[in-house]
Design brief:
Layout lengths: L2 E2 L10 H12 L3 E3 L8 E4 L11 E8 L16 E7 L5 H11 L5 E6 L2 H16 L4 E6 L19 H14 L4 H13 L1 E7 L9 E2 L7 E4 L10 E4 L3 H13 L13 E8 L5 H17 L4 E8 L9 E8 L2 H8 L26 H4 L14 H19 L1 H11 L4 H19 L5 H15 L2 H21 L6 H19 L9 H16 L4 H17 L16 H4 L5 H23 L1
Parallel strand pairs: 4-5, 4-6, 6-7, 12-13
Antiparallel strand pairs: 1-9, 2-3, 3-5, 8-10, 8-14, 10-11, 12-14
Helix pairs in contact: 2-3, 4-5, 6-7, 10-12, 10-19, 11-12, 11-19, 12-13, 13-14, 14-15, 15-16, 16-17, 16-19, 17-19
């Protein structure tokens, strides 16, 4: 069912004018022509027809494609942009006003996307301007690669590749080239680029209803930038598959859209169509580079990712591939003050991947302390059993933790703890120096830091790093029970310091604080250390269960009503109690067996 599209606008008829007003207020280097409602022209504030001694580069078209074209007005790119109403070609008078405002004796180049209305209106304006004595050239850009080569006169549509042509022409003009040479550079650039778009939704025009053309689970391939139907509708596929299909279409030797062959160097543009998150665009960019290199044998010299030529609020993206000749790269890298050109992209591209730095403490360790020893000491066997039991218990309680967390948090406590526990088990088999208690605790913290996200991950990393720092100060590979108890106390203090929680806040500390208290108390009383460990683990379980009766004062549970909190214990506390209890029982079993 179609429904009225929701927009943050006033009168739909005023949307383009009000957009321009906001644009020039945001970027002081821009101005607009004021006088007639139908004249919507954005121009450089530092240029006029009386002072401009270089070729003026002018483009434009229907609005709704922002930041195109007005966002590319600035030194080194466009001199002016002519804005039509949404998806409507600007009128001749508006184009002429722009030409008259910025064109000096060097003349002007009109860059026009290949749509009938744009060609006709810009063409008529060009002829009128010539009759007034202006030197004018026009380059039409048609970079669409979605449809078979047309049989009629319409030609290929102008899409996001036009922005690359703007940059080449603007840089050529800024360098002082003649109108003939600037036009030649722009025309050549337009012949080097191909584009194809895909979308998950249709855009909504201001004041109109939203189309329901695309149903659930569907995507559209090869669509234009005005909401018109694409070449095909297909089932939604992973972005890797979509990117592969689009690149095959652009680079197909059968259609010969672009003169790019294996071994060529190329420029890649991933263009969001208005409602596509940067995350998704970056995923597409990474996959496109990989496939261009591996499948098509191309070297990717530049990657531009962002929203360059949109279609209002369309969810989708387009891919443009341009042959990267040295002169084209020079024009693309040239300086510009156009507010929406990605100035951070140039030819200085170090390797995308570098090794993860090794912490200084690890890099200076000897071989024995930086890898799993071939033969475990009795203490090493006990430590291994405790770690394995603690991690396994955490893995086994994953679903319960997630269920509890879904009621009082964001539902991922079990999954987060699962990732940490799994990494600990895997890393222990490879490089935990189990004969060295302190260094093993340090490695546990490193495993957690590598895979556990969110608050739980950082708190546990703090916990184990603080314990390690305390144990390392003793400078003994084998730690005494009292030293273990003191390390636990130091770890709890660090978590409380940086996390802000303490006893009674309904957190993991409500399991660990009682455990620490009992452990220290039993050791001071001369109790057997293993028995003290087991008794303290029961205190951890009791403390975790008691969180049902606490009002949360930390974490996401603080937003949950007390009635709901009464139904379940704190997931973080239960997780801590579970691994602590499992470790204690494993130590007990190992000591009895020996």
């Amino acid at each position: 069912m179609a429904f009225q599209g929701k927009k943050f606008i006033n009168d739909p008829n005023d949307a383009v004018t009000e957009f321009i007003e906001g644009l020039v207020e945001t970027y002081p280097g821009l101005q607009y022509l004021d006088g007639f409602p139908e004249v919507k022209v954005v121009l450089r504030a530092d240029v006029s027809s009386a002072t401009n001694d270089k070729v003026a580069v002018i483009s434009g078209g229907g609005s709704g494609h922002e930041p195109a074209q007005a966002g590319y007005v600035g030194e080194g790119m466009l001199t002016a942009a002519i804005c039509g109403d949404v998806f409507a070609s600007p009128p001749v008078d508006s184009i002429l006003a722009g030409v008259r405002a910025v064109t000096g004796h060097a003349g002007c180049l009109l860059i026009v996307t290949n749509y009938t209305g744009d060609r006709l209106n810009f063409g008529l304006a060009a002829e009128q301007a010539k009759s007034e004595g202006f030197k004018v050239e026009m380059v039409i850009v048609g970079d669409d690669c979605a449809l078979p080569p047309p049989r009629g006169i319409a030609g290929r549509r102008g899409l996001a590749g036009t922005i690359l042509v703007h940059k080449v022409a603007g840089a050529a003009a800024a360098s002082g080239l003649s109108l003939t040479d600037v036009a030649a550079a722009a025309k050549h650039a337009s012949e080097m680029v191909g584009t194809m778009g895909v979308a998950l939704s249709v855009c909504t025009l201001p004041g109109q209803v939203t189309s329901d053309r695309l149903g659930p689970g569907k995507m559209e391939l090869g669509l234009g930038i005005h909401g018109e139907p694409g070449a095909a509708v297909a089932d939604l596929q992973p972005v890797d598959v979509v990117v592969s299909h689009v690149l095959q279409q652009i680079l197909s030797p059968e259609t010969n859209y672009v003169p790019i062959t294996r071994g060529s160097r190329v420029v890649l543009m991933i263009n969001g169509l208005g409602a596509t998150p940067i995350m998704e665009l970056m995923i597409a960019a990474g996959k496109a580079v990989y496939r261009l290199q591996l499948e098509h044998g191309l070297a990717v010299d530049r990657v531009y990712t962002g929203s360059f030529m949109t279609s209002l609020d369309m969810s989708g993206f387009s891919i443009s591939v341009m042959k990267a000749e040295q002169e084209i790269l020079r024009w693309l890298d040239a300086a510009t003050k156009a507010p929406y050109w990605p100035v951070g992209v140039d030819g200085n591209h170090p390797p995308a991947k570098i090794p993860v730095p090794i912490p200084p403490s690890r890099s200076t360790k000897n071989d024995e302390s930086s890898s799993r020893p071939q033969h475990l000491s009795p203490q090493g066997h006990i430590l291994e059993a405790a770690i394995e039991a603690a991690a396994t218990a955490t893995i086994n309680i994953k679903d319960s933790l997630n269920e509890w967390d879904s009621k009082v948090g964001d539902g991922d406590c079990g999954s987060t703890m699962f990732r940490g526990a799994t990494a600990i088990l895997e890393d222990m088999k490879k490089h935990y120096p189990l004969n060295d208690d302190a260094e093993t605790v340090n490695e546990i913290g490193s495993s957690i830091r590598r895979v556990m996200g969110g608050t739980s991950g950082i708190l546990y990393n703090i916990f184990f790093k603080a314990a390690y720092a305390h144990l390392k100060a003793n400078n003994n590979s084998v730690v005494t029970p009292v030293q273990w108890a003191d390390a636990l106390d130091a770890a709890i203090a660090a978590v409380s310091k940086y996390g802000g929680a303490s006893a009674g806040y309904r957190t993991l500390l409500d399991a660990l604080i009682p455990a620490s208290s009992v452990l220290k108390e039993r050791l001071r009383a001369g109790d057997d250390p293993v028995n003290a460990f087991v008794l303290s683990s029961q205190a951890a379980l009791d403390g975790a269960e008691s969180t049902k009766h606490m009002q949360a004062q930390a974490g996401r549970s603080t937003y949950v009503s007390g009635e709901i909190l009464l139904l379940v214990p704190d997931p973080g506390a239960m997780a801590a109690a579970s691994w602590y209890r499992a470790a204690a029982l494993a130590v007990q079993d190992k000591c009895r067996a020996s």
